[in-house]
Amino acid sequence: MTSQTDQTPADACCAEFAAVSRRGLFSGAIALAGATTFVGSAAITTSASSAAPAPSVLVVVSLRGAADGLSLVVPHADPAYHQARPGIAVPTDRLLARDGMFGLHPELAPLLPLWTNGTLAAVHATGLPAPNRSHFAAMEAVEDADPGSAARSGWLNRLIGTTAGSSPLQGFNLAGGVTPTSLFGRSATMSAGKVDDVRLPGEGDDDQGRRRRSLRTMWDHDRSVLARGMRATYAAVDEFGPAKQAVDNTASYPATDLGKALAQVARAIRGNVGIEAVTVDQGDWDMHSGMGTADRGWMVDNTRELAGAIAAFFGDLGDQAGKVTLVTISEFGRRVVENASQGLDHGYGNVMFVAGAGVRGGQYYGTWPGLGKTDDADLLVTTDYRSVLAEIVSKRFGASTATVFPRFSPETVGVMTSL
């Protein structure tokens, strides 16, 4: 974030989310200086590395803190919207891409070219199958996407486990910090703050190959599972070379956490090293008070950052743009009715944006349930978020939705085309 840092009230977000705010664990690209690590069981479960250009790439942007979907995509024709938000509602005449029910927040203007050319869509009233207003628990549930299972496995990890290849490069966390639950599991994944940090621990510019030679001496003739994982690790680092050679276009992005992070994602994708799934975070959406108006404030700043970074990202993909799909997701939405502090408390339903390859864009999807006007009114969920993700998984990757989302029968959303 650039302008909100010193304006947000100290008590604007809830105590639970304070630990994972912009300055905390899940904070965009804050940890840009972090070294590459392999997390969980990653480095000990891959028998060989065989990176190859991926036919499809999925970028998941997590809006940490529970973004207000009713501000991002405004249901202007629902009479309860303006009645419930006398101080923070976005005026109908300010909305973009307005149809008979919905319109985009005015700060999403950088994304209008994607909307008009049919590569950006919104799915409203999405979310978990049951309300969950704890940030930590909801994040875990969304990213695990397998309710009731005791297995430590995220849906993106299950996805890359269904595709050809066995390289840690297939699943990549480029948000810095701890790899999210969605990428945790049996398949090897990678994590780094930026492209140039992908290296073996202890391997510096003046190393002259000594670290690599010592590792090979130690592991090359070992037949253990750990040794196979180590060999996969340094093979993946070697295969990542073309990404490091790709031009770094960070200067053409907004100078924000998300802009810096997506610049690294685009660079890695342009390297064409076999990446299939990438995660990145935008934090600081927990707006319990002082969220601002349609003209200025916290919501305006966050929305501007989101739109500017995504627009720059798609402009930076070059000849790889035809295989990249991006989806946004947040752990839950916010209440319909604004509170006494001109903010919004934890709610339920939300909106998801889907952009890029394979998207039937330029329109709004989902079944609108209507809004309530009581103080505890929520936007109800009419589309399980997994149905949106399942459509991406099946249409873009040809993967089994039963494998990626066990015990779930997705409904047709219609937002994606086939490969």
Task: Give the helix/strand layout.
Layout lengths: L14 H4 L23 H4 L11 E7 L5 H4 E2 L4 H6 L18 E2 L7 H5 L3 E8 L7 H10 L10 H6 L10 E3 L16 E2 L18 H10 L5 H15 L1 H5 L11 H14 L6 E6 L15 H18 L8 E6 L20 E7 L7 E2 L17 E2 H13 L3 H4 L15
Parallel strand pairs: 1-7, 1-8, 4-10, 4-11, 5-6, 5-7
Antiparallel strand pairs: 2-3, 4-9, 8-9
Can you describe this structure?
This is DUF1501 domain-containing protein. InterPro entries: DUF1501, TAT_signal. It comes from Nocardioides endophyticus. The protein has 419 residues and is an alpha/beta fold. The chain has a single domain, classed as Alkaline Phosphatase, subunit A, CATH 3.40.720. It contains 14 helices and 11 strands. Helix 8 runs antiparallel to helix 9 and helix 11 runs parallel beside helix 12. 55% of the residues are buried. The model is unreliable at 1-8 and 20-50 (pLDDT under 50).
What attributes characterize this protein structure?
alpha/beta, two-stranded antiparallel ribbon, 9-stranded mixed sheet, disordered N terminus, 419 residues, Alkaline Phosphatase, subunit A
A few lines on this structure:
The chain has 419 residues and is an alpha/beta fold. It is built from 14 helices and eleven strands. It has one domain (15-198, 240-404): Alkaline Phosphatase, subunit A (3-Layer(aba) Sandwich).
